[in-house]
């Protein structure tokens, strides 16, 4: 299974924990901070780092990679 999601750090950790319960292995192919493109914008708001995650999962009940 190949999937992507966009989330913040806390949800990313929860997501990875859940995926570890469901999957035999989870390989992170790409994790990038998407705030880097917006870093030149000056603001006084507290920014939460958001990450784009591309992960590859091999499920326990599958003998092939999809």
From TrEMBL:
Q: Which domain of life is it from?
A: Archaea
Q: Which organism is it from?
A: Candidatus Nitrosocosmicus oleophilus
UniProt keyword annotations, A-Z: Membrane, Transmembrane, Transmembrane helix
Tell me the organism's taxonomic lineage.
Archaea, Nitrososphaerota, Nitrososphaeria, Nitrososphaerales, Nitrososphaeraceae
Protein name, per record? Uncharacterized protein
Record-annotated membrane-spanning stretches: 12-31
């Amino acid at each position: 299974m190949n999937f992507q999601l966009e989330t913040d750090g806390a949800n990313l950790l929860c997501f990875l924990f859940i995926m570890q319960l469901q999957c035999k292995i989870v390989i992170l192919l790409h994790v990038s901070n998407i705030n880097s493109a917006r870093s030149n914008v000056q603001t006084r708001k507290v920014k939460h780092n958001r990450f784009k995650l591309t992960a590859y999962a091999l499920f326990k009940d599958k003998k092939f990679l999809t």
